[in-house]
Structures are given as C-alpha cells and as structure tokens.
C-alpha cells in the first residue's frame, strides 16, 4: 500500500510545472519573428496560479504568450508531452482561463494565428494616445513619453491590455477604473524604423506609469504613483530612470501639483526612485555636502518640495542617502555623527505610548511598525535592533550610492 501511494505521488508530481519556468513571452512586429524572437520570463504568476505559482496537469509544459509589440494583443500557444487524466478528482488547469480573466479575454486574446496575424498587420497604423511631453535618445535608440489625462473607449481597451500584462511584473497589479477622472497615465514608446526603406517609423510600447490624483487643500493635488512598468525587453537599459524623470518633470511643471507620492512600492521601484530623487537633489544648494553635515533642515524639506515636488518622508530619505555618501568613512567622529542622526529617527517610533498605536498603524510602514513594537523591549534589545536596522538601511542606501557613482546624470 505504501509503495502504491508513493507511486501515485510521483506520478502526480510529473504533472506539476513551475509557472515561472513554463511561461515565456514574446513581443513581435510580424509573424516571421514568432519562432526566433527572444523569450522573456514573468516575475510572478501568483495572481493566475496561486501562491505556489505552479501549473497542474501537464508534463514538459511550455506556454508562450505572443504579443503584438505596439498594440499588445495576445496569442497563447500551449505545448506538452502528456496531460493528466481526469482521475480521482484531479483535473488539469485550464491555462488560458487562468491566464486571462473572462471579463477582459475578448479584448486581450485573439482566437487563433490568423487573427493574430491580422493584428500584427494592423498595428503598423497604431498611434500613441495623448500628448507627447518629452523625448530623448539613449544608447542609439529614440524614446517618446506621452501623457494621457482624458480617456476614450479605444484608450481604455489599450490600457486594459497593458495592465493585464503588468500582472506578471507588478505586485498586486489590478485594472484601473477609468471612469474616474482622477487617473493619469504616462507611456514610454521606442520610435523604430520599419525597415521598409522609406523612412517610415512605428512606436513600440516600452512601458507605462499610472497615477491617481488625490485632492490636497485647497486647490492642489497629490498624484500618487500606483503602477510603473518597463516591459522585459527594455529592462536594465537605463531608460527606467529616464522615463521616471520625464514624467516627474511634467508633474513638476504643473502648478496644481503639490507633491508626488508612491503607493506600496517594491524594492526595485524604491531604488529607482531614490536614484532619481538623489541625483536631482544633489543639484540643490540646500543638499550640499557642507549642509548635509549639519543635519536635516526645513530648508531641505522646502527646497525639495517646492522645486522637485518631493514629499517630506522621501526628502528625509534622500538627505540620509546623500549624507551617507558624503561622509568620510575613515573619520570615526564624522561616521559616528551620521550614525547617531539616522538612529535617532529609527528610535522615534519605539518611544510611542500605547494610546498611539491606532494612529501609528495608519501612518507607518510595516518596517516602522516593527520598530514601534520594539518599545516593549529592554534597552539592550532596543540597541541591538537599532544597530541591525541601521546596517540594513545603509546597505540599501549603498546600492543607490553605487548607481550615482556609475551614472551621475540621468540623461
């Protein structure tokens, strides 16, 4: 009986696939590229296949999601060597059903290769939505940034397709309700030659950013970045910072904008934002090395807010990164002063009383709440916790500093 159970378990395991390994994506300009185009892996598929990110029911599974490079329609090809039989209640996952929700499937998926080929042919007529707010050259390629503040039916369908794609790369990504007028979208496109020899060009989608404009007393708004994505073929090319700086420049030039905030950022976004904000603040006299040594001041806060639309919390973080960068690590007293300055901020949540917990829960991040919980610790434990928090923070700051040293300018 035991041997039979083990045999059944092993047989079942044959039909369990790692979703991150099985799924690949392509972005095509024509049908001829389908077999040779680079394949890219998603970063997450838990929204499709659960927390384990596994696909059940197939052996040697390969799932390729082909996209039209400009309009982002999808064609899914599924191949496998064998499929589990429907025994004892075990049924293979319906891969297409899990990859694309039924509500958006008619807009996102094509029915077969012939329809996909027609989408590829028609995409040459695609024009970016909205107005162009910036363009730049990077490593021999041309990029354009467009802002969309007024929605249309065609645009909403296009946004639905790229946000469906975003679910593979953005934590908790969801489709936005564009019937709300407070949504604001930015897109980055690569301007490419068609290769037809007549000088004609097309625009391939490179990424997007979605913001929600919250009201700020009296006549201001506080745009919050809800989603930002570079498609996989454009990652690690340096254009992420250039894209962010491009749409931030547009927001800074808008008098109605008070500051720009971020909703639940992931680690990679935090590093990107830190880099962009630090490079910009380095140009402000208030953030000169001489001023940084004297501690964080209202002048720094106001300068970063008024000139760069940086929020108070992010301004303080930028100050700490730049001060750590300018600190002479060989000077023990200078390094000690820097360390004490950061630890004072880290220690502040630990001193809160019990009556403040409800307010803290609304105001602090998860890490800061953990620090607040240290208020119940003895002094020795608090010291050790502070030291660990400081070391982790400086390690993350150093990543931004290393990028600044390698790339002191965004453009």
From TrEMBL:
InterPro entries: Acyl_CoA_acyltransferase, HAT1_C, Hat1_N, Hat1_N_sf, Hist_AcTrfase_B-typ_cat-su, Hist_AcTrfase_HAT1_C. The keyword Nucleus applies. GO terms for molecular function: histone acetyltransferase activity; histone binding. Its EC number is 2.3.1.48. GO terms for cellular component: chromosome, telomeric region; nucleus. Residues 16-171 form the Histone acetyl transferase HAT1 N-terminal domain. One of its GO terms (biological process) is subtelomeric heterochromatin formation. It is found in: Nucleus. CDD domains: NAT_SF (cd04301). It holds the Pfam family HAT1_C. Keywords: Acyltransferase, Nucleus, Transferase. It catalyses: L-lysyl-[protein] + acetyl-CoA = N(6)-acetyl-L-lysyl-[protein] + CoA + H(+). Residues 273-324 form the Histone acetyltransferase type B catalytic subunit C-terminal domain. It comes from the Eukaryota. Belongs to the HAT1 family. PANTHER family: HISTONE ACETYLTRANSFERASE TYPE B CATALYTIC SUBUNIT (PTHR12046). This is Histone acetyltransferase type B catalytic subunit. The lineage of its organism: Eukaryota, Metazoa, Ecdysozoa, Nematoda, Chromadorea.
């Amino acid at each position: 009986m035991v041997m039979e159970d083990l045999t059944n378990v092993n047989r079942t395991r044959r039909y369990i696939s790692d979703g991150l390994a099985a799924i690949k994506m392509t972005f095509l300009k024509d049908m001829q590229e389908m077999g040779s185009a680079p394949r890219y892996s998603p970063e997450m598929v838990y929204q499709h296949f659960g927390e384990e990110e596994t696909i059940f029911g197939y052996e040697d599974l390969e799932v390729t999601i082909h996209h039209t490079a400009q309009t982002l329609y999808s064609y899914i090809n599924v191949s496998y060597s064998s499929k589990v039989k429907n025994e004892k209640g075990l049924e293979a996952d319906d891969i297409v059903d899990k990859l694309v929700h039924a509500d958006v499937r008619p807009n996102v998926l094509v029915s077969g290769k012939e329809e996909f080929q027609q989408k590829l042919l028609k995409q040459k007529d695609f024009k970016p939505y909205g107005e162009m707010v910036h363009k730049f050259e990077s490593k021999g390629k041309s990029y354009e940034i467009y802002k969309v503040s007024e929605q249309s039916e065609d645009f909403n369908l296009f946004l639905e397709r790229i946000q469906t794609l975003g679910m593979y790369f953005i934590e908790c990504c969801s489709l936005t309700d564009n019937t709300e007028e407070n949504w604001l979208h930015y897109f980055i496109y690569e301007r490419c030659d068609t290769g037809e020899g007549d000088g004609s060009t097309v625009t391939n989608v490179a990424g997007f950013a979605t913001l929600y404009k919250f009201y700020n007393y009296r006549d201001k708004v506080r745009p919050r970045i809800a989603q930002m994505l570079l498609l996989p073929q454009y990652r690690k090319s340096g254009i992420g910072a250039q894209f962010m700086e491009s749409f931030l420049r547009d927001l800074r030039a808008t008098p109605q904008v008070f500051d720009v905030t971020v909703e639940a950022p992931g680690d990679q976004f935090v590093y990107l934002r830190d880099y962009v904000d630090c490079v910009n603040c380095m140009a402000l006299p208030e953030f000169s090395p001489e001023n940084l040594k004297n501690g964080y001041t209202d002048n720094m806060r106001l300068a970063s807010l008024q000139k760069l639309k940086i929020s108070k919390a992010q301004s303080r973080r930028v100050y700490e990164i730049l001060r750590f960068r300018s600190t002479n690590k060989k000077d023990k007293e200078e390094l000690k002063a820097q360390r004490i300055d950061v630890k004072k901020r880290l220690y502040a949540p630990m001193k809160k009383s019990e009556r403040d917990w409800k307010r803290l829960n609304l105001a602090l991040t998860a890490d800061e709440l953990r620090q607040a919980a240290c208020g119940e610790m003895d002094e020795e434990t608090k010291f050790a916790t502070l030291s660990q928090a400081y070391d982790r923070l400086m390690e993350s700051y150093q990543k931004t500093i290393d990028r600044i040293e390698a790339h002191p300018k965004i453009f």
